[in-house]
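Structure tokens please, single chain.
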Amino acid sequence: MLKKVLLILLLIPVFQFKGRAWIYPEHRDIMLLAIQKLDSVHRAALDRIYAWARTGNESRLNTSVIDPDQTVNVKYLDYAAWPGIAGDHSTSANNMIFNILHTDWILEVANITANLKTGIAKSKNRSDVEMYLRDSDIKLMRADPEYVTRAGANNVHFMLARPDVKTSVIPYMLHCIKEDSSEVNLVGTYWWYHTSAMFKAQQLMQAGLTAEQRSSLALSALADEAFAIHFLEDGFASGHVAGVWGNASLRKGTHDYYNEHGLEVSTWNGDRLVIKGDAWMRQEDADRAAQTVRQSLVQLVDAATLTNKPSPLNDRLGFLTPDTFNIAKAIHMPARHGDPAFSEMFKQVLFTTPMPGLATGDGEIPRFRSELGAFIGFAPAVRLNILNGGFGTDQNTTGTVPGLEVALHVGLGMEGVLNESGDGLVFLDLGYRIDGPSTVKYHYDPKNSPYGSVISVIPSRDAFYFRFRMPFYLIPGDLLLAGPVVYLASKESFNKMVASAGQGGLIPWQTGLVSSIGRFQFILGREIGVTFNGFILGGSPMVVPDKSRGDGAASLISMHSTQLEFPFLEYRPFRNFSLNQSTSLALQFNFGLDIPGKVTMLDPADAPAMQLKNIWFMGIRVYFDWRYYVANK
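Here you go.
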């Protein structure tokens, strides 16, 4: 039990939710629109810079800066795809370029997300969207080796909340970029990478550059700008504009709610609009974000066309390579001193972005929680088992046994870390159960009715039981057995192992299926119920045929038995979550066996203990799942 508790504690930091803003195809669509909105002069200049960057990389980069007709079967990556790869599929601009140019899996990611875009476009309802997101996330976890674990434990994809209603754009900007004290954040990360891109763009027109240097410099500038634009685009996703604070449950719940339902916001320059978030982007959302991204690209191109005031090229500053600021590992914004003109340009871009919500206090945007974190609760249930007979070796007549149970529910909720189809749920139930008598009687005779359930093949019984649930990576229980060893050997490998388990395992046949009538999930191996009949509360007397005493003879016995139950399919028709409590109704289909143990002979008391057989059963269990999530502040 100590090992189980320790492992559950290890699981908590793993499931930092993946707080993406736009999904890959949405990022690409915004960038595509922004480039299409460029005037002819800036578009020609961007095409020239891209052509320099493409030199030597023709096998991976598209011939044109954008490919508006791209659908599926992606063989080359255009510049519009880079912001989709940034952030979610890379941890720095340098890492992004390596993945774009030198990995095979990045093209698989591009194809997976192209199919995701097609699927979402033809979705008829919310359940369809969730289905395509589920399938896409499973495929992305297989394709991208660090898809889940790359996210880290910071809030780099989110806007910092405004301190108060009077905060204006300049103090907010300084708050976001203040070195060594500001938490890494969306605005600060855009500023860092956009500034880096501008510095490099200034070098492009200086004399004396070799063709190879100009190509490397152009590639580096475009990479830094694309990485910056990923976060600039995130600034138009509603779940990331609401402002971020609180624990993981609060951040995820707020993020998910506003992304789907939308949020009314004002930009810093006074425009009012309603925006949505990942997987729910509308055309007006894309157009609004693209207009601001276009402004950022114009600044980059203008910096690249300046010839009167170039900064000296300095290889030691890494100008010929993309920036290495790692967004997954950083806690605070790093120090940077740049051209004051860049700050003015940054302010111009920031003016057109939505203002984030207020921090905790009067006037704060309503926050929502998710089912993420530790909980306590109770789980009452009704059940019906179909048995293949009784414990006696000749008792083979099929019958049914009804039952009631109630349990104390303690666990860790981790559903929906990536999407609603995920299930990282861990819990332990300790409960009390009472079963009615079997519908099959040892010997039916109206004269025997006063004897009650004693004459049933299995009499009425009550017992204590426990249930345990945990996801698995490949085989049931592997997180308990192999998890601690893997964790000590490589925390990164352990994180990936647990994250994959939460999404259905290495062979993800146990991911949930969200439909318009509820959620279905195969759960074989994830959960086990164990009931101890007769161990603590005492065994109920039962009549069992006893061949050792002759044909037709029977003995009265009391016994212990251990009943093992293995649920294999679960259906939840509804599930509600409000503040820090959740309620749901669930139906579980299961099978199992009842294993006889110690037998006490009651009549005749001096007879040798009887030999009994296992009872196999199939059953259905309907239970009400109520949870109270603790420490959700």
